[in-house]
Amino acid sequence: MIFVGYPIWWYDMPSIMYTFFEQYDFAGKTIIPFTTHGGSQLSGTVETIAELEPDATVSDQAYTVSRNDVTDAASEVVEWISSLNLSE
User: What is this structure's pTM?
Assistant: First the structure.
């Protein structure tokens, strides 16, 4: 299980994230994305990751938070992680 965080820039992942997914093979892994954004939410990046990593499972429970709300998001992040039902 791999948590991958990135900002949304101009409705997409930064270019370095494409390089990251090209460089590493996540076959058989579960990828759980989380992002910050300026208003565009996830912008289809969960689907993009699924296309880039076809042999991985990409969680549809990605987390995103507005750049304006990051400083107050701690409780939301805790709730999100709890909702993933991760085993210890």
Answer: 0.90
